[in-house]
Design a protein that fits this description.
It is a single chain. Helix 1 packs across helix 8 and helix 8 runs parallel beside helix 12. The chain is globular. 55% of the residues are buried. Helices cover 70% and strands 0% of the residues. The protein starts with 14 loop residues before the first helix and ends in a 33-residue tail after the last helix. By secondary structure, it is mainly α. It has one domain: Up-down Bundle (Amino acid/polyamine transporter I), CATH 1.20.1740.10. The protein has 19 helices and no strands. The structure holds tryptophan. The site of tryptophan has 16 residues, from helix 1, helix 2, helix 10 and helix 14.
Length: 493
């Protein structure tokens, strides 16, 4: 009953197919590039702890709500709100999601471009040839500041996205994800084994798992929450769109749980693969956006068949980036085809072009435009900060409020329980989406945006004064932080 019917939509091939496609959106550069570097900049264990809490208390309920809104309306994010609450301004939430999506895609394609470039560099054997940490870091910094190359690689990546999305997402991606994601998983396990057996890797484990609650600052909480939103693809309607292809027998809450667990495990595994190696090889965990690209080549160079594994790894990471980026593009395309009645190819080309052009200043912000700063951040850092830590959380609050308070309790309950009438934890979920999630997100958001920091936050933040907007500038291997001393002692076996 909860379906408003109307547009006939295809559904996913199977429940597993849906979970893998949603996990394919969630699992991407966010897990393997972003998670380790944000964790490294934000105190390791403290970040990990808060991030896990955010996933469960905020991510899980909002993921369920997005899927329910999608399935209940059968529409793209803008159309969904229009269908469920006609004549109100709620569709603006979907529209804000589109804008957020363009900005995310613009910088996401840049990092995906780095990944493609590292794939090429693996084929030519360059990645496994760096003699030490400095050489590897320097090669990365030189590469990203080379404006033109970066723009070309991200253009190639954008083209790949366009090819997939213009043909329709489901058949191809569903099939590919089933083979490629498990392979990625196996490779990460190999990396973990190598990384943990490096001399000096133990310091990395301590950084990750040794309880140190004193490092929990407002900054850490903001970043952990932003990372949870970003990594789960929440807050801008990707999961509304994917939910619109879910059939009525599927249990939404269970699926949300599986997606969250898959996504969290890949992040944690990526952390385990990288962080011990960071310490063992004498990098700083706070090296910023380049962390993954600094460290992995060195790990590969210490593995048998390193060149081969490096090729496979960067290939799979490119695919993981692709399955995530197409979910971003798909949101804009489904909006343009449903609401503006554009043809799919036209929608794909125009939307991808907008995101690509938007990304050019971000790409150049590592090189020729590195001097241009807004709120102290370059274009890339600014896009990343504003989307993950501001726009996605705002989208999340609005989605939670809509599902919990506006949509109608009976309609929400019918949609969530569809396919699972005796859901045990419904009441718990309901109060999480009504109260816990929106209040938690709003509190963090408001506190972080207040110009005057509270006294407490100031005391807590004194390690990094004046840095609500902190993202390391790439190129700087920062040696100031309060990292465990062993970080400073390179011990490359
Ligand atoms: N979640 C993806 C990742 O971790 C990135 C992504 C895809 C995303 N779609 C999104 C982030 C929507 C925010 C919103 O790599």
């Amino acid at each position: 009953m909860a379906s408003s019917g109307g547009i006939h939509r295809e559904t996913w091939g199977s429940k597993t197919g849906f979970i893998l496609a949603a996990a394919g959106s969630a699992i991407g550069l966010g897990n393997i590039w972003r998670f380790p570097y944000i964790l490294g900049e934000n105190g390791g264990f403290a970040f990990l702890l808060i991030w896990i809490i955010c996933n469960i208390l905020i991510g899980l309920p909002i993921l369920g709500a997005e899927l329910a809104i999608g399935r209940g309306s059968n529409r793209n994010p803008v159309g969904a709100f229009k269908a469920l609450m006609p004549g109100t301004a709620w569709w603006l939430v979907g529209f804000m999601g589109l804008i957020t999506g363009v900005i995310i895609l613009s910088f996401y394609s840049i990092v995906a471009g780095w990944t493609l470039a590292y794939l090429v560099k693996s084929v030519t054997g360059v990645t496994v040839s760096y003699p030490d940490a400095e050489a590897s870091a320097l090669a990365f910094e030189n590469f990203v500041s080379s404006g033109g190359q970066i723009v070309i690689y991200s253009f190639v990546f954008t083209l790949l996205c366009m090819i997939v999305v213009s043909q329709g997402v489901k058949s191809g991606i569903e099939k590919w994800s089933k083979i490629l994601m498990p392979t990625l998983f196996i490779l990460i396990i190999i990396l973990i084994v190598r990384s943990l057996t490096l001399k000096g890797g133990g310091a990395g484990l301590a950084f990750l798992f040794k309880p140190d609650f004193s490092k929990i600052t407002l900054q850490v909480i903001v970043m952990a929450m932003g990372q949870a939103f970003f990594s789960l693809s929440l807050g801008m309607g990707v999961m509304i769109t994917y939910g619109s292809y879910v059939d009525r027998k599927t249990n939404i809450i269970n699926s949300a749980g599986s997606i969250m667990l898959l996504n969290m495990s890949i992040s944690i595994l990526a952390g385990l693969a990288l962080i011990p190696a960071v310490f063992a090889m004498g990098f700083q965990p706070s090296s910023g956006v380049g962390l993954t690209f600094h460290v992995l080549p060195l790990v590969f160079s210490k593995l048998p068949f390193g060149t081969f594994l490096s090729i496979i790894f960067f290939f799979l990471l490119s695919i993981a980036a692709l399955t995530s980026a197409i979910s971003l593009l798909e949101v804009m395309v489904s909006y343009a085809t449903d609401e503006l009645r554009w043809s799919r190819p036209r929608a794909t080309v125009i939307m991808a072009a907008i995101a690509f052009l938007f990304g050019v200043p971000a790409a150049l912000s590592f090189g020729v435009w590195s001097e241009i700063k807004i709120f102290g951040l370059g274009f890339f850092d600014l896009s990343e900060y504003i989307t993950a830590n501001v726009l996605l959380p705002i989208g999340g609050i609005l989605i939670a409020l809509f599902a919990g308070w506006v949509w109608g309790r009976a309609r929400l309950e019918a949609e969530i329980k569809e396919g699972n009438p005796d859901l045990k934890f419904y009441k718990v979920w309901l109060w999480m989406i009504r109260i816990v999630a929106p209040v938690a997100v709003a509190t963090v958001l408001v506190t972080s945006l207040l110009p005057e920091k509270t006294e407490e936050a100031q005391v807590e933040n004194n390690a990094q004064p004046d840095t609500v907007l902190v993202t390391e500038t790439p190129g700087v291997i920062d040696s100031s932080g309060d990292q465990p001393t062993s970080a400073a002692e390179p011990s490359t076996e």
